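Milestone M4 deliverable, item 7.
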Amino acid sequence: MDSPGPLRAVRSWEEELPARGSAPAVHEAILAVVGELGYAAATVREICARAEITEDRFQRRFGGKERCFAAAYAAAADSLGEQLLGACEEAASWRAGFEAALAVLLSLVAEQPSLARSLLIEVKVARGEAWAKHQETVERLTAALDTAREQPGARPNASPMTAGFVVGAIEESLSIEIAAGRAETAGRLQQDLTRIAFLQLFGEE
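Output delivered:
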């Protein structure tokens, strides 16, 4: 299955834009509008104008703002999760995989700050099915990070909670940068976040 439109920039700048009024286009529009205006302030009218779809068709096909945002969030979260895990799998070592996946995440934040705000901040306002998907994604990434305990040099007292702490620290750090208007320079966090993760998981910097 092709990844949804909102994550094109992470994978390639050369892909075609989704057809206006299509599900990928509407999903991209709602994530962009929510990221720009905030979930509470984002209106169906603005979303439809961005996606070039009538409000009546939007309501009939996507079931309103809450359901549409949940579907858009799920598609984007799944796509991002696959990219992060794919970056880990393609690397030569666990540590290199972590750094590669972190670079993908930081690139998303820097290149698509509105999308990043939707995925990391506004989902907390939306709650509902989108929030449930967020929690599922966090648990999936935490489980992947917890495989560090199987690696040589892992801290003997590390636990799944350790991996959860690292994932939470990364999410909170990025949320702070986005909220402060510094998303475009998120790449500068690569070294510090890597150091925090390796310190917690391996007892090394």
